[in-house]
Amino acid sequence: MTALARLASIVRAPMFRDRPNTIATVLLGTAIAYAAFRFVEWGIVNAIWSLPREAGSEACRAARGEGACWAVIAERFRFILCGAYPFDEQWRPAVACLLFLILYVASTIRTLWNWRLLALWMVLPAAAVTLLRGGLFGLSDVPTEFWGGLPLTFLLSTVGFAVAFPFAVALALGRRSELPAIQGLCIAYIELVRGVPLVTFLFMAAVMFPLFVPQGLTVDKLLRAQIAFVMVIAAYVAEVLRGGLQAVPKGQYEAAASVGLPYWPSTMLIVLPQALRVSIPALVNTFIAFFKDTSLVIAIGLFDLLGAAKAVIVDAKWVGFGVEVYLFAAIVYFAFCYGVSQYSRHLEISKTL
Amino acid sequence: MISTQATPSVSIRSGLPGIAPRPRAARVRAFVWQALAVAVVAAIVAAIAFQAATNLRARGIASGFDFLDRAAGFEIARGPIEFSSRDTYARALLVGLFNTLRVSLLGIVLATTLGVALGVARLSNVWVVAAIARGYVEVMRNTPLLLQLLFWYSLWQALPAPREALNPLPGVFLCFRGLFLPSPIWQTGYPWISMERPVLAGFGFQGGASVSPEFAALLVGLTMYTSALIGEIVRGGVLAVDKGQSEAAAALGLSRIRILRLVVLPQALRVIIPPTASQFLNLVKNSTLAVAIGYPDLISITNTTLNQTGQAIEAIALAMAVYLVVSVSLSLGMNVYNTAILRRGGHTT
To answer: What residues of chain B lie within 8 A of the CB of A179, using their CB?
Structure first.
């Protein structure tokens, strides 16, 4: 069979199986082809990829509607990815992003699924924060108000997860506790947090938190947002872990009890390890959800990836080029989230957890 | 967005008998742990309350809800409820709540419709249809909702100015200031109803009905995002129905549409409804992203209020209470539904 014939047979089976299928394929195919054609025309053929140095955006404005203005990305992509971080020091956010990516890749290696992974989740984010903050090892000091872009997105979600995790375990166990007061407190916390929008927690962190600490003590705005994320992530992860705990067969609890293990050893050695393994796909999905939701820090004036993208089009030169800027940000988010979600799906299907 | 899964009302206790050689000692230990937990939480809450009271006194902010009766002094974009800057904060918050409910309810209706269509399309025998639906779902699920909202908003901003407004139908105008439509007006004489058309005036349109870009972007964003999630739930629900059911129906000679409508969907609904209800709740919570594009929802107005009055604690507590009421009533409704299904001899998931 020639390559062409093989291709034809691959295509024919799903697309041209019967008459309705063929009609739909032809009609929709034409529509898609037209849309794709228009998109290519706008995004590639008529697009303006760069502007001369010091030139205004008039050329782009003239092409509005006919061609995309990728020049805005060419000129501002370092700002979108690194925020207002000092330009000459931007290797630091780049390395910080790399550290986070190493952490995510390492998290997929099963031979590391033990205390080593726990250690990595503590060491690598701490290293990234140190690198961004500076003030050590001859690195210049960079206050957090200059942090932004992709490292901030990674930071808020990853540190949020790492710090929230022990609290989430405690909340999940507490929710299944036989002690009514502890169970009640845990349920109240989890349901309260999950019942209100994330934005209200961020506003709480931004405007209410200063009222809760002694006068004169100012807590960094980024740290406050991070605390808000930790509080919220803990509640959501606790619910994921509760699902995992419920999935552990009752026989496991009973077996542990019958060999005389008290509550804590049986929980730590028998129940929790199994519950965590079952929960991994759901945990990955929750991580993606919060990775996307870190973009809400825009509401309190922090500049994560989306915030930096939004800040670009505040500039008079680039006002009105939101579509291009947001498409660029969307591609970055999509690449990461789609990759991670495919991994999570693979875990669910392989069922070897 | 974060997905709130509807949790079963029945909590399964661990059933851990524990090894209790001395039941009395175990009871004492249980009491001590609980007393300790309650004491720690109470101490934290008390410390925060004390600190907040001290700080408020130092800043000269009187706590309490008196500010609700004061004049708000800010304007809200024209909406169904009349509002002027002389009206009170209470009325402003009410307008915000109404705007939240308006966009949420419309969003829920549209997202459900589109979501069911998507779920069916995902299962379509027609490969192209299934592929388009899958692509749509992946794009929606893997980019932040806020980014989608900002995208729709800036797409709308790229529309022509009012003078060059698009005019697809007579009386319908689309420009970057919004969508302007003819609206019916009731009259006393025959023919009792007439259509008022929007007319270009100054920098915008006057008369008729209008849809603001903020509202449109929020509604489109919420609808498209939530419909993708509902579509996946619908697809999962249909797949959860035993294949033998549709095969049996096919053996009886039912058409594909009737199999879906009479056999598969009624059974799938039991799986579909609880997580879909959670998605409705998420949509209501996600409508707070309005704050980023300037639609005057409850949170935007709460934000303005707390910035003007400094009553951060009261304003945020009020907003949180509203969202809690919405989510608790939805959970209660779901529990009633689950019980009803159980009583009918069905099984919940």
So the answer is: 30, 33-34, 37
